[in-house]
Amino acid sequence: MQLAVSSADQVYESTLVPEEGKPARTCCGLLGPLRIGVDDADEPVSLAPKIRTVLAMLCVHPDQVVPVSALMRELWSDQPPTSGLRTLQTYVLNIRKLLSQMAGREPAEIAQEVLVTRSGGYVLQSSGMRLDWLDFMELADRGRAELAAGDGRTGIRLLEEALGLWHGNALADVPTGPVLESRRLHLEESRLDTVEALVDAKIEAGLHQKVIAELASLTSEHPYHEGLHAQYMRALALNGRRARALEVFGGLRARLVDEIGIEPGYPLQQLQLRILNSHAPESR
Length: 284
What we know:
Strand content: 5-15%
Radius of gyration: 23 Å
Shape: elongated
Strand order of the largest sheet: 3-2-1-7
């Protein structure tokens, strides 16, 4: 789907037309570049940067009044232009036009039922919409619940489905102010927690060999993350590669001591001792 954008502040027509006779369900994705579409067919869109910021602010606060003051701070910090309020209203109008095009509904209907003006701000009504970050949170919670109940297979499937919703870093192409930056960090931490839960579940299910390559990449991407390094060490040791597991510990310890001035935590040190004291044969 392509949106024609004539300037930094305007959005015109979309070439996407909802299927005739079928109510369109608008989908908005924040887990990666901003994506929008209907009936799960969401794709990256060309939107002016500040319009992305307003849409993202509304999407991370569904069914809540987002104050005009908060939107203006997110857009311009503490120095909004003289025309800031009128410009913000234009951005909201453009978003309503976009949602109207996506859903095949009149802009007035969108203004009354989807992106609604309230006293002091705007509300994005979540009914009839899909927000990928909410789907991610729900799937991740269900996956953990299944794991806690002893159903490893279902738990792994749900966690994999949750992580499959990601298309890159959260809010990858959205200019962020303090609120969106905080939400971005929260989503990234939730993603990493879910990755750890999935890896733990796979190791417990005896799939340690299948996670080694992924953990090698993850520990390279997160060179100070002790939890991921512990999982990497466990998977290597379970695969008979004790020497490599101890090398991973040594590399992490050197980085922590040399660059931060701290030793690895007690759980990681205990894992190192268990691997040192194990007698599993080395695999070649």
